[in-house]
Amino acid sequence: xxxxxxxxxxxxxxxxxxxxxxxxxxxxxxxxxxxxxxxxxxxxxxxxxxxxxxxxxxxxxxxxxxxxxxxxxxxxxxxxxxxxxxxxxxxxxxxxxxxxxxxxxxxxxxxxxxxxxxxxxxxxxxxxxxxxxxxxxxxxxxxxxxxxxxxxxxxxxxxxxxxxxxxxxxxxxxxxxxxxxxxxxxxxxxxxxxxxxxxxxxxxxxxxxxxxxxxxxxxxxxxxxxxxxxxxxxxxxxxxxxxxxxxxxxxxxxxxxxxxxxxxxxxxxxxxxxxxxxxxxxxxxxxxxxxxxxxxxxxxxxxxxxxxxxxxxxxxxxxxxxxxxxxxxxxxxxxxxxxxxxxxxxxxxxxxxxxxxxxxxxxxxxxxxxxxxxxxxxxxxxxxxxxxxxxxxxxxxxxxxxxxxxxxxxxxxxxxxxxxxxxxxxxxxxxxxxxxxxxxxxxxxxxxxxxxxxxxxxxxxxxxxxxxxxxxxxxx
Length: 476
Prior knowledge:
This protein is mainly alpha-helical and 476 residues long. The protein has 18 helices and no strands.
């Protein structure tokens, strides 16, 4: 028997605290790593422009929908959806998409911590290199002095081949995430966002300026913002659609959970817009940070997932101040990873508190510990269990290792399903008066939002889901 859902007494101290935490939830590896990777692979400008359109036509309506559910429900994702459904005289079964989101968040944080561990490892390498440069009296030398490009690239393979190293950095990162979540909303999550997000933006602007001065900012800007519409293929458009959802952390009930901690005020529209704008600006700035460096040293912008861990470390070696700015670059990514992992772990933790009546430390420990154990399986997929294919019977995942299988299943199936059900629920089932009074939108803005969420969002997300499950639709 499911425990009675209870409202949480926890809440944000201010609107700005919620915005910082929500932007921190959205800003993560999806902005700093995945967006530049996709932009590089997809030819730049056409992808970027279509992505921005997707954020505001699809992402923003879904952001507002998730925040609304949390604000109206005032408890965990499942309980909040159940309450909105009850007030809208809809079936309580709609709460299932809150459960899908909570499960997706749990699965994602398990492998997210592993990948963030890689960032932690590289931050340690670059930090050690900076210390050596300072001791040698040359703190503004290039990074990893004396190493060849092959040696720098080999570091990633060596890391993957070491289960102990991967386990160690995964343990440290997950431990930090669990500690912050266990401390609660005001003492843990809000305090972390209050310190980490200003630090993140200072580092980001500083690194963009560094790239503009030492790199080729003109070529990077032309690559990112000059569209070649011939490259806007169905595959590129689908990638942009998926990135808009992934980047804003939609479909994992994170913004529902964070929205439930809003105790006062009804101006959810401007707040949601600010979250979407800030997240998009971070993605664009990440491109303006990375691509000037890539172009300045003649490297391939379409290097793919190795861009951050192999291409850029070599680029920092050839640039003045590379030791310092290479270290700051990985610190920047690490900060973004922490703020996102906190929001991911908070979703199942809030479910344990609201649905099971567990204390916050107990719920955080259960789900954080479970995610840590699942992450061990993911990291072993790079070495000891390299031949394991968890969903090998499914052609879509026949050749993917453990981590990529969990990543692919959550990204291709669970996130689109969560976003699809959210859009249908808000667009067709939620009570109109409840929506109006809670969001505080003007009649015109409300009409536009309701149209987008009822018609455009379900169609677009259904396309993402269908093409993710059946790539042959796109000819791939």
